[in-house]
Every structure is written in C-alpha cells, then in structure tokens.
Write a structure and sequence with these properties.
434 residues, alpha/beta, Rossmann fold, 3 domains, four-stranded parallel beta sheet, four-stranded antiparallel beta sheet, 15 helices, 15 strands, 42% helix, 16% strand, binds zinc ion
Amino acid sequence: MVPMRLYNTLTRQLDELPPPPGPIRMYVCGSTVYQRIHVGNSRPFVLAMWLRRWLKTRGYDVTLVHNITDVDDHVYEEAAKLGKGSRELAEEATAWFVQDTDDLGLGRPDVEPRASETIPQIIAFIEALIAGGKAYESEGSVYFRVASYPDYGQLSGARLEDMVAQEPNPAKEDGRDFALWKAQKPHEDAAWESPWGNGRPGWHIECSAMAEKHLGPEFEIHGGGLDLRFPHHENELAQSRSRGYPFARVWIHNGMLELGEEKMSKSLGNVVTLRNVLDVWGREVLLLYHLSGHWRKPVDFTDESLESARTQVESFRNAFRDPPPRTAATLVWDDFVSALENDFNTSEALSIMHSWRRLGLVDWLEDALGIFGLETLVTEEAAPSAVHDLARRRAEARAAKDYAQADKLRDDILATGWEVRDTEAEPGYRLVRT
Ligand SMILES: [Zn+2]
C-alpha cells in the first residue's frame, strides 16, 4: 500500500504519515465567532472533515479537534458595536457556526473545544512558561519572551532579527514579544480571574492549550488557513516547544479563497457568508467547488467557478439517473487512492470520478462521492432516519459477525423501499431507493 503523504509547511516537503491504524491526531484551527462565518472559513472545515473520512476509510484511528475561538478582540469589538454583551454574542455566533457547518452535511469534528471552557488549562500553561523563564508578567498582562526561543521563524520563515515591534508598548521587554494573557481593558465587559489579575487569554495560547488538553503534548497533524501560518501558528509552535512539547509533526495550510484580486477575509467587510452560499447555491455545489481545487492552492471564488461546480453536480446526478453503458476502465480504484494518498489531491480524484461517470462505472463513482459527502447525488432522496437506524444496526451486526441478524435487517430495510449497499467509504454503507 502507498503511504499517505501530505505537504508539511514545517519541513517544506511531502511527509509520510505513520502506517494505519496510526493513530492520527489532528488539530485544525477553527473560526472566531462574532458574526456569520465567511465562506472562506468553510475551506479548512471541509478539508479537515474530508481528510478524517478518508483516513478512516484507509483504516486509521483518527481524532479531529476543531476549536471555536470565542474569546478574542473581534468578539469584544463587534459586541460593543451591536450594544450587546460579548459573552452573549459569542454564544449566539457559536450557534450560527454549528448550524452553518452542520448544513455542509459532513458531520461534526470529534471535539470542538471553546477557548472560554479552557481557561484553567490556559492559565496553567502560562504559569509553566513563566516558571521556565519563557514568559513574564507586566502590568497585569503576560508576554512570551520571543528572544528565549532561538528556533522562532522555523515554520513561516520569519526572521527574528528582521522583526520589528508592530506598535510601541512600554509594558514589553522587547517589542517582538506577544501577549499570552491580556489585562482587562475598560471597554471589555467580560474577564476571567488569574494570578495576574482579571483578564483573558491571547489568541495563540488558546490553541496551544486546547491542543494539549485534547491531543496531548505531541500529535500528527496541525491545520488551518495559510493566513494563520504567521504569526498564529509560529507563536503556537514557539509556546508549545518552549514548554518542552514536540507538538505537531505535520503542518498543513490551505490556500485562501480569492474574490477578484483580493484575498477574501472577514475583516474586509462586504462579506460573503457561508450561510449565503449555502442558501443560494446549496451544499453540493459548494462541496464540488472545494473538490475542484488542490487544498494548498488559492482558488478563485466567482460566479463562474460556482456555475461550473453546479454543472458538474448535475452531470454526476444524471450518471445515476440514466447511466451510460458500462465501458472498461482506464483508471481504476487504485488510481483514485493514489491521487488522494499523494498530498490529498482532490482535483485529480475529481477528474478520475468524471472518467468513471463517462464510462458508466457508477459503483466506484458512488463510493468516491460518499467520501466527500456527495452521496446525495446517488440517492437523490434522503432516507428517513428510521431506515438509517436499521442500516446502522445492520453494520453493527456485521461487525459482530452476526450475519443472520444482518441479513434480517437487510430484508427489513428492503421492506421500507430502500436498499442498503456496502461501500469502501465511511460509514460503510449507502442507502438507495429501490
Ligand atoms: Zn489556532
């Protein structure tokens, strides 16, 4: 079997994952919740959910942690603008985030920790850094001593000697130091108690602490948008390594969505939200759109690219409605596997799927679409949850080698007008209308 390889920002090469079953522990930086998330924020979520599904299909034991940044400058600023409490806004926007990402139809990450629920671990982390001489308290805030970490810049290529202070701050020993804990400011309506007075954590330490809490001091994959490579991920790495942790081995950074010449980002205003895109184009078109670009590359986000995705969605749906006569394959399942094992090249996988569509090879196509949450193109109609319950019980019976019970459940499912088909992809079956 070909080993799974991913491009690692840290080593600047394709690195192999350990052989199955791993484990593969993944931490992917999530969204800051203060408004409906931008469509660009759907890319790391979709990539992480697809990668988890694929790795499970390949026999890996995978744990995906995707955090929710609910304590951040943006939350305070937006709440003040709206005249509401920052905690209230964070709660509301967390619910939007869950609802909008739910509607992608890819399931949920294994753990979705919130910064606000991790304060004790964050404080303990900062205390350990202070005890080790890597951080210092000043005027109720705590700063990371950047000069104490000689490897600073190894992830992003930033050079310590070229770095200059972004804004003068007399509380810092060195203008390049960054905040781990921020003393409460007069306009901030919420704060947490700490050994340094009331305040709240900085953004970077939140992720170091949440990763440690849920995955331990060392894990296999750390992901996020390319815009997080510096300073966010550089600072996470500096903090965690300074605590003596190996931290993440492979760093994956997805390219940004581009609207015209400008990088799309929430701070630009005039935002295109994930909610809008789901409402106007639907989840299948958005997923197909994400499938068509390599995760590392920037992708244009235009009406033309969405229109092209819609055409492709319809072409796949038609392949099941009215399949062309089967023709011998030039590209087989192993080619599809190779495309994904080689840096998770979904655009190459997509072109193989189109070749199967043209040749009427709908069995492979069905399995492949299922990996990317596009099984709805096969069934058209979603099976009722009662039928899904029967299918799940059948999968459990099969796993327990109780084949008599599995056969009985298959017949029960048939009696409801659905047929259960076994697949390579998670969850191991698909329901098709008879
Ligand atoms: Zn993060």
